[in-house]
Amino acid sequence: MINRSGQPERVVSGMRPTGRVHLGHYHGVLKSWIDLQHKYDCFFFIADWHALTTHYEDDLSMIGRYAREMVIDWLAAGVDPGRVTMFIQSRVPEHAELDVLLSMITPLSWLERVPSYKDQQEKLKERELATHGFLGYPVLQSADILIYCANHVPVGEDQVPHVELTREVARRFNYLFGRDPGYADKAEEAIKKLGKKGARLYRNLRAAYLEQGDQEALAKARALLEENQNVAIVEKERLYGYLEGRGRIILEEPAALLTAASKLPGLDGEKMSKSYDNIIALRDDPHRVEKGLRAMPTDPARKRRHDPGDPQKCPVWDLHQVYSDHEVKEWVQDGCRSAAIGCLDCKQPLIDAVLAEQQLMHTRAAPYADDPTLVRNIIADGCERARTVATQTLDEVRRSMGLEYY
Ligand code: TRP
Ligand code: SF4
Fold first, then answer.
1. Per-residue model confidence as pLDDT tens digits over 309-330
2. CATH no., domain 10-178+252-262+371-401
3. What is the pLDDT of residue 233?
4. Nearest residue (CA) to ligand 1, atom 10
5. Which residue's CA is the closest to the ligand 2 atom numbered 7?
6. What ranges do the domains of the chain cover?
7. Site to substitute for ligand 2 among 299, 323, 350, most atoms within 8 A of C-beta
8. Which of 2, 19, 109, 171 has its CA 20 to 30 A from that of 321?
9. Ligand 2 pocket test: which of 316, 321, 334 has the largest number of ligand atoms within 8 Å of its C-beta?
10. To which H or E segment does residue 184 belong?
């Protein structure tokens, strides 16, 4: 997909290194990343500063350990370092500068009404989260996204309000700083480059939109700009803004790309989550996996081998949804309801499928696990590329805020 500037559209997402990557992540977020890497210019990063906002009192050597393992897990899952820019947030300090600048224009009330602010304080009662950093978390996240001019941000449902806030912050920024001195004069200059006919058309369409709210005129004017080859990108941006009576777009508004929540149950039958201590890690010990799955709870109605059960009431069935083909699923349905199979029989194809998947992960991870310099190089390259893009945005931000003096 190509954006307005003729560049491939960009995707940005981050993951907090606060635990091991598990199969819930794989069948949710990671699979969507792997899909997206073929369609977009993807930037995926280790959100280590974000981990600090909640975990600053923990043993912080864990963050580094989880981060290193996390990169290997991404690679094992199939994230392609040749396509994707993989980096570490804290190695791109430009995020922090943009965070500071954005925090100047973000009203406190916007942050206080982000649902995760109160929710997390409720949920993580044992942690002291009434901190500046935790309240400001969504501004930092906005900086993460806006600094790469991301078009799409793949996130779970809980993160959608953060992307929404990012859009509001970008809009406010553009409103405040997108009208440089001589804004209208510069726009008028740019209009001339559309040619005589083009300029007349643009002016008429703009007037129709601004004076009568004519949406069709707006669409036509946008198409006119899109087709035009003679106007530089910066000037085009100016004309897009002028068209709608707002400033030039400096920070582009991203859209949330909702990744379907993985319903993968954990080893205790509840949703797989590190906070429930019920995970199967992406690269786990095969014996632990097998033992865990064999012990996994099933439909309580099946107390004895000959008691019939109902897959609908069994978390093992949810795993079959992910791992088994139609035939196996039919076999489970019939066998469970008629008590023709026992629960261990039922689990066997699942155990085989999960172990085969784990084997693949272990194999793909092996070269990276064996030679840490490989991962170090991938991350070093990623950080460099990320900084190049981030610096460009930040230069533009500084300029538009009048911070480029002397
Ligand atoms: N807040 C996200 C989470 O907890 C992680 C994150 C940080 C992120 N910065 C981001 C996700 C930017 C997407 C884009 O999962
Ligand atoms: Fe669950 Fe399978 Fe046992 Fe039925 S037979 S209760 S689906 S594990």
1. 999 999 999 999 999 999 999 9
2. 3.40.50.620
3. 84
4. 14
5. 311
6. 10-178+252-262+371-401, 183-243, 283-369
7. 299
8. 19
9. 316
10. helix 183-192
Rounded Cα distance between 326 and 63, Å, is 41
CB 320 less than 6 A from any atom of ligand 2: no
**Cβ contacts of 223-227, under 8 Å, gap ≥ 24:** 224/194, 224/198, 226/4
How far apart CA 307 and CA 299 sit, in angstroms, is 10
Ligand 1, atom 9: closest residue by C-alpha: 141
Task: Write down the pLDDT at residue 213.
Answer: 85
Dihedral of alpha carbons 309, 312, 315, 318, sign: positive
Ligand nearest to the CA of 349: 2
- For residue 107, the CA-to-ligand 2 centroid distance in Å is 52
The residue-averaged pLDDT of 86-103 equals 98
pLDDT tens across 127-155, in order?
999 999 999 999 999 999 999 999 999 99
Distance in angstroms between the alpha carbons of the first and the last residue of the chain: 40
Looking at this protein, which amino acid is placed at residue 149? C
Q: Does 5 score more than 70 pLDDT? A: no
Taking only the tens place, the pLDDT of each residue in 183-237 is: 888 899 999 999 999 999 999 999 999 888 899 999 999 999 999 888 888 888 8
What number does the ligand 2 atom closest to the CA of 335 have?
5
- pLDDT higher than threshold 70 for residue 284: yes
Whether residue 233 contacts residue 2, with contact meaning beta carbons closer than 8 Å, is answered with no
Which residue from 12, 13, 55, 89 has its CB within 8 A of the most atoms of ligand 1, so it is best to mutate?
A: 13
Query: How far is ligand 1, taken at its centre, from the CA of residue 157, in Å?
Result: 12
Beta strands in 113-261 (DSSP E): 152-155, 255-258
Which CATH architecture does the domain made up of 283-369 adopt?
Orthogonal Bundle (1.10)
Q: What is the pLDDT of residue 4?
A: 58
What is the mean pLDDT of the segment spanning 364-368? Answer: 98
Closest CA to 347 of 360, 362, 328, 361: 328
pTM score: 0.88
With both helix axes pointing from N to C terminus, report the angle between 315-323 and 326-338 in degrees, rounded to the nearest 10. 160
Cα–Cα distance measured from residue 65 to residue 335, given in angstroms and rounded to the nearest whole number = 44
- Say how far residue 59 (Cα) sits from the centre of its chain: 26
pLDDT at 107 over 80: yes
Residues with CB under 6 A from ligand 1: 12-14, 16, 47, 50, 141, 144-145, 153, 155, 159
Task: Quote the CA–CA distance of 7 and 406 in Å, as a whole number.
Answer: 33
Q: Can you tell me the mean pLDDT for 74-103?
A: 98
